[in-house]
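Thought: the user wants the 3D structure for the chain below. I'll pass the sequence to the structure tool as-is, report back what it returns, then summarize two notable features.
Action: structure_tool
Action Input:
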Amino acid sequence: MTDANSGGTRPIVIKKYANRRLYNTATSAYVTLEDLAGMVRAGQEFTVHDAKSGEDLTRQILTQIIFEEESRGEALLPVQFLRRLIGFYGGQMQSVLPSYLEMSLDTFAKQQEQLRGQFKQAFGGAPGAGLLDEAVRRNMQMFEQAMRMWPGFVGGMPAAPKSEETAAPAADDGLAEMRRQMDEMRAQLDRLAGDAARK
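Observation:
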């Protein structure tokens, strides 16, 4: 579907019926949560609406997809992270946290793309699983360190294990760039927190 005004592609509309069935209006077919998860991975934008009331249920359905993935053993979210996340509901920082998490995940995804691009350019192919896993581990360490620097997380985050790699000064440009981006995000969060406190 193309939006004539913007020239962009509009999200596919998924309708949810009272019997919990999900209907893809673009393909005129019923779909499952697993189908929607596949659409997310493929980069297809969609919104989910109640077929009767028109209420936007996209957030609820995406949350159900995460629950399904976690239930079948595809655990991605650490227990401590989930505890902290629940703790933010109803708190002063609830309005700031979504922006912070979105920026963090965006930075994480960009770092992975850069890494893949560097490997492809250097070796003409995708990186080996072990090397990519190591890069993911390093990025998660950076993410956890950034969370500790944010005042709302200081009390409950466990200390990061110190290794020879994290103790040694970072030599590669990618790590330095990520640190710079984290500093920018922290500054933006400070501004957002200040704005929220003034409201």
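Final Answer: Structure generated. The beta strands are 12-16, 22-24, 29-31, 46-50. The longest helix spans residues 97-123.
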